Amino acid sequence: MVHAELFFDPQTHTERGVPMGVVIQGLSRARQEAQRRWGLSSALILCFLRHLSQASAFETLEAAMPWREHFIGVGLDSSERGHPPEKFAEVFARCRELGLHIVAHAGEEGPPAYIWSALDVLKVERIDHGVRAIEDAALIQRLAAERMPLTVCPLSNVKLCVYEHMSQHQLPALLDAGLVCTINSDDPAYFGGYMNANWLATFDALPQLGLAHARMLALNSFEASFVDEATKAGWRRKLDETLAAAS
Questions:
Q1: Helix (H, G, I), strand (E, B), or coil: what is residue 4?
Q2: How far, in Å, are 107, 139, 211 from residue 135 at the CA level?
Q3: Which of 14, 33, 104, 197 is the most buried (most CB within 10 A)?
Q4: How far is CA 138 from CA 29, 178, 193, 224, in A?
Q5: What is the pTM of this model?
Q6: Mind listing the pLDDT tens digit for each residue in 226-243?
Q7: Any catalytic annotation for residue 108?
Q8: What confidence tens digit (pLDDT) does each residue in 167-196 have?
Q9: Which of 15, 33, 108, 125 is catalytic?
Q10: What angle (nearest 5°) sits at the alpha carbon of residue 235, between those of residues 212 and 142?
């Protein structure tokens, strides 16, 4: 891993009395330490909890603005069902005005319709999860045509019973359809593993995935990241050099 874009949920902490600055500055110090120790670059994405109200999301955004330089974007996470993206249309419009990157969980537990709403109402730059897009052929065509990244979290998908077994995961079909899928971790303490564990579990359970798919997934992750093109080009060169040396 060379770069991580980390979600954090400040409402989880501020609701029990932890100040916003403590949350953001603590995470920022951890990022700096990871850069110093391992050369791992990173960025923070502030997420709104969708089971709470849009008013709470607005309050969270306002409270976070004194530390605006510490986060690059906003997202939407927590329980999908019953909380469609359009519930947060106004706060995301404000975030776009502020120049923040926009992402949202959609289409894991929630239906494909939530992915459409994330695209058309929130105007996201990336879909988190998105695996249920496979149920909607028109949506698959759109995601492929727009090169819209999906941050797929396989262990989370199994833990949340989207798939009963990893062997049933639709990642191969999504890749075959031309979607910009990546493999990620999701709340590792709850859902079963960090990045490497997700990669290993996926490739162990899906024998149709091979080295070419691994390279594609890595390249997709570079494309999906919110970094400059020169940095992405450097990562691509390093990947191909590493694969050439190993062959």
A1: strand
A2: 10, 8, 27
A3: 104
A4: 44, 13, 33, 22
A5: 0.95
A6: 999 999 999 999 999 999
A7: yes
A8: 999 999 999 999 999 999 999 988 889 999
A9: 108
A10: 60
